Amino acid sequence: MNYKIAVIPGDGIGPEIVAQAREVLDAAGKKYGFQLDYTELLMGGASIDVYGVPLTDETIEAAKASDAVLMGSIGGDAKTSPWYQLEPSKRPEAGLLKIRKSLNLFANLRPAYLYEELKAACPLRDEIIGDGFDMMIMRELTGGLYFGERRTVEENGVRKAIDTLTYDENEIRRIARRGFEIARKRRKKVTSVDKANVLDSSRLWRAVVEEVAKEYPDVELSHMLVDNCAMQLVRDPAQFDVILTENMFGDILSDEASMVTGSIGMLSSASLNETKFGLYEPSHGSAPDIAGKDIANPIATILSAAMMLRFSLDLDEAADAVERAVKQVLKDGYRTGDIMSEGCTQVGCREMGRLIKERI
Ligand code: NAD
Ligand code: IPM
Ligand code: MN
């Protein structure tokens, strides 16, 4: 069986980590009898350099025509990169937001799981880590502050900036349903995270999530304020099964959760719409500080590729094999610098990719 995969290597470490994910995918294809036909697309800074804009309509169409999109990361150093001399709507990040919106990728799944083998890389104390944790952060991805009206004005010589946070009940309902559906296949617990003590959008969020919860009587729902959640993530991460939250809160909480898994270099993600189609990318950025040095951790991208096999291509066996290979490489003591600990063997990005591929 052949599948059409759009590949967006992006900027910074993007091309390095995507190359390793492709190697691993191809090894899985060989073993499980499928072939991925890749079309490389430009987005972010790489697209600005060629087309002057971070995402062209042709790229969106090519992505839509594929079975799934595999992405690295986009963006550069805001201080030194010429991309940030452009107006905000033409910068790399605008391309990422545009592709999410154009493909209606409203459901962003970010699994934060502590591998037994990575306990030493987790910054929490042993008694907090206990038997580890396994949570799914369900982040709404096409609404909220990211897509609200924004402008900068000057009033009486005073500069003023305005960003607006809007959600309608339909946007909340569809992500909530996704959250409950996923919880049903896990430990049947949803923690909905909001700021309902202050924000109207959060009060609506809470009300709609309560309504949706009635459709899922087998799933336990609780609510948590976002500031408390940020604290609880490092106090007792094992209490969470599915965290259901809006766009900006999910962005921040998922970076925090990633670190308790050992490193942001471990956190994969899938961005889905109502169909089988999805965009798969690590949760981290383009890491300009380590780009081109062959030291980035490719595991988040490789695990995102496994999610692509599972969710968009129905290749569960191959997805399992990729996840097993990652676990095995960690068991065998290989680490990139970000998850390095005593007694382990430090390897670079390419070598980590090769070692995982070898274990498929
Ligand atoms: P970042 O995630 O790129 O990096 C934060 C820190 O984590 C850096 O020290 C970096 O070296 C480290 N890091 C990240 N990924 C790593 C990996 N795989 N292995 C080892 N270390 C890793 O966040 P930032 O520095 O705030 O942002 C850099 C650029 O990336 C910005 O332009 C930002 O807008 C962009 N960004 C893009 C995405 C995306 O494409 N989805 C996500 C986040 C940030
Ligand atoms: C992410 C990133 C993006 C976001 C940025 C680059 C726009 O941080 O995917 O987590 O905030 O969604
Ligand atoms: Mn982020």
UniProtKB/TrEMBL annotation:
<feature type="domain" description="Isopropylmalate dehydrogenase-like">
    <location>
        <begin position="4"/>
        <end position="356"/>
    </location>
</feature>
<feature type="binding site">
    <location>
        <position position="227"/>
    </location>
    <ligand>
        <name>Mg(2+)</name>
    </ligand>
</feature>
<keyword id="KW-0460">Magnesium</keyword>
<keyword id="KW-0520">NAD</keyword>
<keyword id="KW-0432">Leucine biosynthesis</keyword>
<dbReference type="GO" id="GO:0009098">
    <property type="term" value="P:L-leucine biosynthetic process"/>
</dbReference>
<dbReference type="Pfam" id="PF00180">
    <property type="entry name" value="Iso_dh"/>
</dbReference>
<dbReference type="GO" id="GO:0003862">
    <property type="term" value="F:3-isopropylmalate dehydrogenase activity"/>
</dbReference>
<dbReference type="InterPro" id="IPR019818">
    <property type="entry name" value="IsoCit/isopropylmalate_DH_CS"/>
</dbReference>
<feature type="binding site">
    <location>
        <position position="227"/>
    </location>
    <ligand>
        <name>substrate</name>
    </ligand>
</feature>
<feature type="binding site">
    <location>
        <begin position="285"/>
        <end position="297"/>
    </location>
    <ligand>
        <name>NAD(+)</name>
    </ligand>
</feature>
<feature type="binding site">
    <location>
        <position position="139"/>
    </location>
    <ligand>
        <name>substrate</name>
    </ligand>
</feature>
<feature type="binding site">
    <location>
        <position position="100"/>
    </location>
    <ligand>
        <name>substrate</name>
    </ligand>
</feature>
<dbReference type="GO" id="GO:0000287">
    <property type="term" value="F:magnesium ion binding"/>
</dbReference>
<feature type="binding site">
    <location>
        <position position="251"/>
    </location>
    <ligand>
        <name>Mg(2+)</name>
    </ligand>
</feature>
<keyword id="KW-0560">Oxidoreductase</keyword>
<keyword id="KW-0100">Branched-chain amino acid biosynthesis</keyword>
<dbReference type="GO" id="GO:0005829">
    <property type="term" value="C:cytosol"/>
</dbReference>
<keyword id="KW-0028">Amino-acid biosynthesis</keyword>
<feature type="binding site">
    <location>
        <position position="110"/>
    </location>
    <ligand>
        <name>substrate</name>
    </ligand>
</feature>
<comment type="function">
    <text>Catalyzes the oxidation of 3-carboxy-2-hydroxy-4-methylpentanoate (3-isopropylmalate) to 3-carboxy-4-methyl-2-oxopentanoate. The product decarboxylates to 4-methyl-2 oxopentanoate.</text>
</comment>
<keyword id="KW-0479">Metal-binding</keyword>
<keyword id="KW-0963">Cytoplasm</keyword>
<protein>
    <recommendedName>
        <fullName>3-isopropylmalate dehydrogenase</fullName>
        <ecNumber>1.1.1.85</ecNumber>
    </recommendedName>
</protein>
<comment type="subunit">
    <text>Homodimer.</text>
</comment>
<dbReference type="InterPro" id="IPR024084">
    <property type="entry name" value="IsoPropMal-DH-like_dom"/>
</dbReference>
<keyword id="KW-0464">Manganese</keyword>
<dbReference type="GO" id="GO:0051287">
    <property type="term" value="F:NAD binding"/>
</dbReference>
<feature type="site" description="Important for catalysis">
    <location>
        <position position="146"/>
    </location>
</feature>
<dbReference type="InterPro" id="IPR004429">
    <property type="entry name" value="Isopropylmalate_DH"/>
</dbReference>
<feature type="binding site">
    <location>
        <position position="255"/>
    </location>
    <ligand>
        <name>Mg(2+)</name>
    </ligand>
</feature>
<feature type="site" description="Important for catalysis">
    <location>
        <position position="195"/>
    </location>
</feature>
<comment type="pathway">
    <text>Amino-acid biosynthesis; L-leucine biosynthesis; L-leucine from 3-methyl-2-oxobutanoate: step 3/4.</text>
</comment>
<comment type="similarity">
    <text>Belongs to the isocitrate and isopropylmalate dehydrogenases family. LeuB type 1 subfamily.</text>
</comment>
